[in-house]
Amino acid sequence: MSDRRLDYIELLWQEVSRNPHRLLDVEKEEEQEEAPPPRRTLQALCSIPRRLAISAGLGGTPVTPQLIESLRRILLGGNFRVFDYEWRKAVFHFREPNSEFAYALKADGGGARAIQMVVQARIIKHLLFTQQSTSDGQTLHSLTEVGRREQDRALAAALSDSLWLAGQEASATVTLVTEDYCITSHLDNKLDTFTERLQLFTFSEKDAITNFILDHIQCFQEEGSHGVILFLYSLICSRTIERLRQDLDSPTSYLLHLSPGSSACRQALLNLLLTGRASPHLFNGMRHFGQDGLPLQRPLQGVLSRSDVGYLRWSREEMERGALPQVGSMLKTPRFPVWVCSINSSCSVLFSATRSLLSDWRAEHLFQLYYYCGQSSQTATARLTVDTHSHHWEASSRDGGDPEKRFPSLEMTIRTKWDGAVIAWNGTSPFY
Length: 432
Known about the structure:
There is one protein chain. By secondary structure, the protein is of the alpha+beta class. Helix content is 35%, strand content 15%. The strands form four sheets. A six-stranded mixed sheet has the order 8-9-10-11-12-13. It has a three-stranded antiparallel sheet with strand order 1-3-2. Helix 1 (3-18) packs across helix 2 (20-34), helix 6 crosses helix 7 (148-166) and helix 7 runs parallel beside helix 10 (227-239). It is globular and about 110 Å long. It holds the Pfam family MINDY-3_4_CD. Belongs to the MINDY deubiquitinase family. FAM188 subfamily.
């Protein structure tokens, strides 16, 4: 060993002898460097406020990686796709209680609006015909006298209606987010810090579902809860992945249509919300033959029974192309006079306070319909007078000009149910 090496060692020992505490500090630093990084807390990981997350002690079944994969594939078509910002912020939030729109949900835009409007239709059905007397004595005024607690009960009833139908009226599942359970990301899927924390609660009685949702209504209503996505997950788990795959035709393998900047609901998802089955078709019953008259390799499943809430559809673009699909009577004539309207690919709600409108042909001569589009720009519920026995509507239309102003899309949608009807707006500017 060289003299220079010995000099270095001697100097090092001298330094240690003078400052023995420095050696202890170095050992501590090495221990800290070798220790694993501290685990991130769930609060840092997740965007949902802690008050909206349930305790794992509540029970239920934790979500599995396999179910997460199935949920993403059936909804979005792949493991690496997650909901965008518009979907994540969507909730079921009412407008002011005891006001003009006490019955109404806020639904200004985004792909989740269609789901909010179906739930809105079920809320109106509950407030007018289930909670109240089933006679024709109810008016629009009764919808303005809805308090905060009544809003909560109506929303719980509306959500449980769709879940119970999806579970074939035998069982249903509600998904909530737990505060301290998390599945780590795998290489074959994308972590969204929300789906990985789902807890599933399954019930075999409808009242039990409604009460459970009511007890946790804030998880679907409050800002930051991802309430619409939670309900959508509940709907799929109630229907089950296996039954959904049987419902869907092979060309329709997932429920959301992905487009730049948004994800819109396919017809199959709307039908699942309305009827409990994810058929992508609007006609009644089954079709065994194609348009060419030849037998189909696989029969097409339409709507098999009348729904509680109806559906009307009209699109100017589809009409001009001659591609407007015909809605069958099972959806056009529901059990209650409430319709979800898809008008130029935007959903809204049309309803009557007269239940006999669907059972007494005389009530269809002259009647009132009410319309809510879901947007905050609407300042009053539109009241329309529909006359099916006056002169034909085309005779009173102005010649020339903008076809949308001559034939407002809402009027054209109503005429898919009441052909040739004359519609008065009663002082409201027409919804174009």
